[in-house]
Amino acid sequence: MANTKDAMVICFDVSPAMNSAPPGHETPFETSMHCINMILQRKVFAESKDEIGLVLFGTEETDNPLITAGYDNITVSRNLLPVDFEFLEFIQNEVTPGQHNTDFLDALVVCLNMIRTQTETGKYANRRIILFTTLQSAFSVDKLDLIVEGFKQVNIDFNVIGPDVPPINDDDDDDD
Fold first, then answer.
1. What mean pLDDT, rounded, does the chain reach?
2. What's residue 80's pLDDT?
3. Quick check: 176 pLDDT over 50?
4. Rounded to the nearest 5 degrees, what angle is found at the Cα of 150, between the Cα atoms of 148 and 155?
5. Single pTM value for the model
6. Degrees to nearest 5, angle at CA 54 with 51 and 56
7. pLDDT tens for residues 13-22?
């Protein structure tokens, strides 16, 4: 049997930084919500068998399998499942801005654990984590090497949707 479905975890920053914008402008939280809704709607209307999970970070509560390891204010709101109208309604009606700044790398550890444990017995064409954040909360790079290695071991594609990040100026590429 061929690998016919994808596994995707949406990692959504709901911290206070995501809920601020100049007057008359949409907040990053609102923009992210529109984008997430479009992703989910496309899956529903295409009758996709892809499985999508949702991890929120910056939440008041903590609900994830790594809670005893100190991954606080991170909530696994939905395990990997095909998208349905209940998921769309949950996104539209239940996801609200949080009150805590949370390390996005800690949230990625929870996402990595989720995708690794929930896809180990199935056949998936692709595994992907999409991070929605402004990158404005403090973070610690102490686990970065482990996270990168985990992504490589499980073969996870990673996308960040957020602020424009200027390209790194590589001094080795002199065009003179």
1. 89
2. 96
3. no
4. 95
5. 0.88
6. 170
7. 999 989 988 8
Q: Which of 163, 166, 164 is nearest to 28 (CA)?
A: 163
Pairing of strands 156-161, 51-57: unpaired
**Amino acid present at 46:** A
In whole angstroms, what is the distance from residue 52 CA to residue 129 CA?
10
Tokens 């929870």 correspond to 110
Between CA 77 and CA 98 the distance in angstroms is 14
pLDDT tens digits, 48-83: 899 999 999 999 999 999 989 989 999 999 999 999
Contact between residue 28 and residue 12 where contact means Cβ atoms under 8 Å apart? no
Return d(Cα 141, Cα 60) in angstroms, integer: 23
Sole residue written with tokens 């601020």: 20
Which stretch of DSSP H or E encloses residue 129? Answer: strand 126-132
